[in-house]
Please model this.
Amino acid sequence: MKTIILACGSGIATSTAVAKKVSDFLDANGLAGQYTITQCAIAEAVNRASSADLLISTTVVPDGLPCPYVNGVPFLTGMGRPAAEQQILEILKK
Model:
């Protein structure tokens, strides 16, 4: 089971929108049931990321992350989304 942390400024608004899009994308790519997504505020991300396989964030991330990071803004804007999706797949399939 892969663990994904999805962070935004407050852990509520944009992370919820992105979580749905990421979940739909992963399910469509054969990963249904193989991951969990936990939302949090970016201030909590470093501590939570120590046990995660991936952090996706819609805001600036602090230095020192112990796991791979993918920019979540493309899931809000649509620009650069295919590249972000590819990064996610590459990280989760390791």
